[in-house]
Amino acid sequence: MLPVACGLQGWMKKLVQQAIRNDTVWRCIDRALGSGGPLHRKLLRSRSRLPGYGPEREAFVAKFGKAFPQRAVCHGPFAGMRYPEEDESGRTVYPKLLGSYERELGEVIESVIARQPSAIVDIGCAEGYYAVGFGMRCPDTRIFAFDNNDVARACCEAMAQLNGVEVRTGEFCDRETLLGLDLGERGLVFSDCEGYENKLFDRSVAERMAVHDFLIEAHDFIEPGTTERMLEAFDATHDCRVIESVDDLDKASGYDFPELDGFEFGERYEMLAEWRPETMRWVYAEAK
């Protein structure tokens, strides 16, 4: 009976996927279940991960484009930063242009900007959201941006030029490279390097860079225990705190921006989602 049961389960899964992929069916489900319930959340998450996201995808992209005709960030610490027509940010361009991207870090980012650090290192800079954004808000700060992806670095350089910011880009930032940078009196190391933080940071690095601050995205889903290792590395030399991300579905139901007016719940989800595999954490280590 086991093969029959498995086959039936697979058939039912495909049937559900086909149903929630259909925009007409989904609108009926959306109205029937209401936004934010546990079943609605589960189905919406599944629908959003399906290839193509339904036949109305092009219409949504066009609708989004009308809401952001200037391709400039609307809110948050980097409001006004312009994005090139072609960039490497993919679906996350929506929350970045809206200004909701990693909104959980807003308070820390503003405190860093108020301090006007001598240098900022962005490890895993992607298309340059943070590197260029910090460069705009901290005009006298030296900005270093590293990414292994050639396309990402090219996009970062293009966005820097578009916004009149000087960014020094590089490929791989290992421990030797980081320790060799001249960060001045008090800099910031901003790290989003997909688990490599476990090899890059330890107590010896924290001690050698004790006058600088660190904001590290901890990828516990890649290597469990990452948050704890980062805290252990910096607790003797820095004041540390952990910041947790907000679930994408909670953003869709709780975030309120005027640009979201006129968009249905599923569209709001698409605009706000950051497509994380689970709730993320950041470790902010501030020099004592």
CATH topology type of the largest domain: Rossmann fold
Number of helices, where a helix is a run of at least 4 consecutive DSSP H or I residues: 14
Computed over alpha carbons, the radius of gyration is 21 Å
Domain unit count: 2
- What is the average per-residue confidence, as pLDDT, rounded to a whole number? 86
Overall geometry: globular
The H-level CATH homologous superfamily of the largest domain, spelled out, is Vaccinia Virus protein VP39
Strand content: 5-15%
For the termini, the CA-CA separation is 64 Å
Account of the 3D structure:
The protein has helices spanning 2-21, 23-33, 38-48, 57-67, 93-98, 106-115, 129-137, 150-162, 175-180, 197-200, 203-208, 226-234, 248-254, 265-272; strands spanning 119-123, 142-146, 168-170, 188-191, 213-218, 238-244, 281-287. It folds into two domains: 1-54, no CATH class; 104-245 and 277-287, Vaccinia Virus protein VP39 (Rossmann fold), CATH 3.40.50.150. It is 45% helix and 13% strand. It is of the alpha/beta class. It contains 14 helices and seven strands. It starts with a helix and ends with a strand. This is Methyltransferase domain-containing protein. InterPro entries: SAM-dependent_MTases_sf.
